[in-house]
Batch of 2 targets.
Target 1
Amino acid sequence: MDLTQLAWGDAGWGDELARGAVMTFVVATFAFALGILIGSAFAAAKLSRFWGLRLLGDFYTTVVRGVPELLIIFLVFFGGGSMLRYLGNSLFGFEGYVEPPVFVIGILCIGVSAGAYATEVIRAAVLAIPKGQIEAARAIGMGPTLRLRRILIPQAARFALPSMGNVWQYTLKDTSLISVVGLVEIMRAAAVGAGSTKEPFTFYLAAFVLFLLLTSLSNRGFIRAEKWANRGVRSQ
Amino acid sequence: MDFDAMRDAFPKLIAAVPTTLTLAAVSLCLGFGLAVPLALMRVSKSRLLSGLAYAYVYVIRSTPLLVQMFLIYYGSGQFRAFFEAAGLWVLFRDAWFCAILALTLSTAAYSTEIIRGAIQAVPLGQVEAARAVGMSGVLQFRRVVFPIAMRLALPAYGNEIILMVKSTSLASTITIVEVTGVAKQIISNTFQPVEVFVIAGAIYLSINFIVSRAVTVTEIWLNPHLRTERAIRSTTAAAIH
């Protein structure tokens, strides 16, 4: 095993791997944000009075949690590609291959998958808010928007935080799957390095360590955030 | 939607289901076998043993399965001479061995935490009662702690089974042709991703639906003391449908 392969600059692949790590982090962050948006919308649908919306919410979480992420990535990558080709051809008369933007596709796929897990977390968090709180807000004449902003969201966010930490960890790890369609994140950078140096173990071990660092550091961040969010809450 | 394409894809995808199920079943069984001793290490009073088990669980759960699989399958090539000398190269050059090894190590880590939680959730009174009638440590574990823990672990372990069925799709990245692998082949030949996705997705959903039903039925079967009329009726109804 030749660790000088991992040196910085032209001599080694350290900077390529670091750039991959940044890409992993960026994609995971966007996907996580998208997941929270989707999760909030579908949690609202699942808690709705209308059975049609509840059904839609159940359908989404069942399908996305029951189907492998890799399959979803293949669907969006190849499906998005042929849709772009079709659009390019019919709108601009463009003939030829249109490469689908893997960065956007990655965020979309991982975001949709994170959204399904976030839906359940947010739904549980909303249900954990004592009913009396909402009744009290209503009693002093708060409108629905104000209730949402002042009572529901701050408390649900606090309840959801620990489980959202898990969702973030899933999201971070799932970004590695985007490498199969060519996005240069940690895994892809490692694969390129492994291919040109014939030292696959060195490079995949580096990828392993980078992921370990990313999850450990962000885990600490979430523990801090939890402490901060619960600073005003009485504890035993 | 092109229904002919779906009709063509269906038998090919179904033919790959045994591969997916074999991967999941073999690694779940081996993983469970590893997880029980690891969980015991986790709850043991020895800080060294519990620390070692925790380190294993932490490292595996913090890294993507894809990285672990590549590390084993492609990474082993770097030490080919060593493996050949040790007579292990026959194993490591085989994608099946590597996929099952990676899946086993991964599910072992997740199951360890599930089983540890269940062992710690066994009511103390039960253990005290076992001790009071003079059962030895091993007998206590075999007759009281383990059976109760298994019942408590079942719902969470059901989720782990479903996650594993999904995880087997990663084996397609190291040349094993299971359902996702076949789906990818068909998609890149026909460029009809939606049709193939619908069929492949439906296959995974059916497998996972059957798994979750089976887990519920097992749960009711293992907990006769908690059975109510309603639970029995709804399960038999679900089993018939």
Note: Residues 137-167 of chain B form the longest helix (31 residues).
Target 2
Amino acid sequence: MILFDRFELENGLQVIVHQDKTTPIVAVNLLYKVGARNETPERTGFAHLFEHLMFDGSKNISDFDQQLQLAGGECNAFTNNDYTNYYLTLPKQNIETAFWLESDRMLELGITKEKLEIQKGVVIEEYNQRYLNKPYGDWMLIMRYLAYKKHPYMWPTIGKDTLEIKYASLDEVNSFFYNYYAPNNAILVVAGDVETKQIRQLTEKWFGPIPRRDTRIAPLPTEPEQKIPQFLLLKRHEPLNAIYKGFHMDGRLGSRYHAADLISDILSGGESSRLTQHLVKEQKIFTNVNAYITGEIDPGLFIVEGKLSDGVTFAQAEECISNELKSIWNSPISETELTKVKNNIEVKKTISEVNVLNKAMNLAYFEMLGDANLINTDVDNYQRITASDISQTAMQLFRRENCTTIHYKSAQKSKQ
Amino acid sequence: MNNELNRQKAPVYHQITKIDIPTVKSGRLANQMPYHILNGGSQELVYLELKFNAGHTYAEVLVSTFTTAMLVGGTKHHNAKQIADAFEFYGAEVRADSNSDHAMLSLFCMNKYLDKLLPLFCELIEESVFPESELQIMIADRKHKYVVNHTKTSVLASDAMYKMVFGPHTYGRRAKLTDYDNVNSDTLRQFYAKHFCAANGKLLIAGYVTENVLRSIDATIGQLTTGQPVAPHTMPIEPVSGDKTQIIKMTDAVQSSLRMGLATIRMDHPDYHKLHMLTMVLGGYFGSRLMTNIRKEKGYTYGIYSILFPQIQSGLLRVMGDIKSGYSPQVADEVRKEMQKLKDQPISNAEMALVRNYMMGEMLQMFDGPFTSCDAVAKAIDMGVGIQYFEDEQNSILNTTPVELQEIANKYFDLDHLATAIAGNE
């Protein structure tokens, strides 16, 4: 059980404090409720570029990292489609440094044109490193483009391509900042050997003077139900044939989210999972196969992907995947299989409570979903799932028309 | 009160001058296998890591890799599926992996399931049978991974760098695709029988380690056959000769990978701590010389790092970054310039303070619970320096001077032998 206190400043900043007396480290996590889904279609990748700029100096502090390192701290951040999360850890006696640093960059940035240009270069190299300069690196970019027609999940966090980032201007940076980086659009979590009273004082002192901002956050379009299966064949220099499939699934708070998550574990959680045992070990259709969920707040995707064994055709591989998915709803899963995936949920939860930073991140995430206490209760949503929930969810999920498929056909195949 | 708030002035921060290094309790199991216990944490989780002197150095190419990976491929009493089912039912994670020096088998599970899992874990160490069918599946998978990996600039550059630095030594050896077809289960069985025994291994136990945990371990792992220790094949490491730069042309690459390497001192060398600190200054943290120069000022990379990588027979100073196409040769020159600068001038007191504080903070964070520190502790044990290493490291961080770092740069930044590999469209 993770205990915590919660309060809100007058400017709307939500604050959560979790006490853990066992550690000399304090974790400070600041979540801004803005992600790639809030971008306009002509400036995709902007939220993530912005995350980089947040480390490039603020109104009163020219070098964020250096000041933190002087206080013995470390930091990082990530952006995804739903939110942007900044986190740092430092020795507990230096906690005020974290408040100083984080509040100053919420107050006002110190971005110049030159700094913006350099960060664009860094982000473009990040794009290249992560998505383009490796085989199959762009599958998720293509999958999103095919699977979504309305919802901004149609582009990845990094952006549709690097050109849009190139054209981002300083004015756009500023208006993005004032619209989204507001105290009333953020959640601050402090975890460690701290007292709520002390945190309240520090928060009032450093964040209190930042004015509430008039944020305008456009409502997101609902993705219409997919009625026709989507398919794309890519002939590439990729070394092996590969299949990627995406099925639309419930959002994070949807009634079938947890069942879908467990289905992905049944299919591919570990060596004993169905896809590995049946399709890799027994039938040798794939040398490697995986299933997982994107886990986003709005309706996301359930992914199945695999690399085909030499000599196996796409048709054979598709049929085998289809049979495996069907068998989840055709024949009820055994009690043992269900207990196994639930045991795994229990272990994952125990591991997630080992370290303060992890706890701070999870508290912020769940508070964004609506209630930080989900950190304690979300596990019940998994434990109460029955075999019949699993089969019903699978039936709903794995419909032919609900699926988007990409085949990478290796143009180098003949060389092997 | 807000009028008093001066945002330009940093709040007072406190220097960390003392870190509580955890004690490691060491002893021997009934069969004389040495163990080391890193106790702590509030969650009832336990991690066991068995290491055998059976890394890549101990055999022909791929033998150690496949012997280790196949430990979960079947025993006299259980097939691969039964093994996976048994561990995964309890959410336990078993990992089998090998590096140049060691073969490793680990188990991570909740305390309450440990007794159920230990007997099977022991079977893997003592009664594996290496079934041909499982081996063929694994070979097919590894070959596919090999093919995919060898289209990556990072893998090609790294392999080339290792070959240049270590030459004929096994540390520089890399498998070829055709080597996978020569793996056979008889060779693996022989390697297994000789190397995976108590006298040739050691055990790290981390987490919530109670008396009961140790008792259970002694009743299972402590009963494994003792066997004989195996000595590694040691070879001298010759400095790189001939061409020290290699460019692997990949016209399709949208980015290039730069990997630089220099064989250097081992972890038990008295200068190691200072060299570690110097490597940190060069490229070990976000504010480092390389990150400042190449990322922050030029925007040519998402990240460029230098690290000191310890191995039993030789340390390795490594620089790595994935670089904007067309700029790798220039960045390689910049790396050499930055190293030369550290030889020419002592770093400023301000930079010294920054690195010192950063490293103390990093170490404090590392010792925040048994699971964050067990990799580092295991490394120290493997390299023969033990937990005392961290006390010495602390003293070194607090007391090393800029002039001493400069001396270390002149002693170890041997630019004449620094190997450079670049893969990409250069």
Note: The first strand of chain B starts at residue 24 and ends at 28.
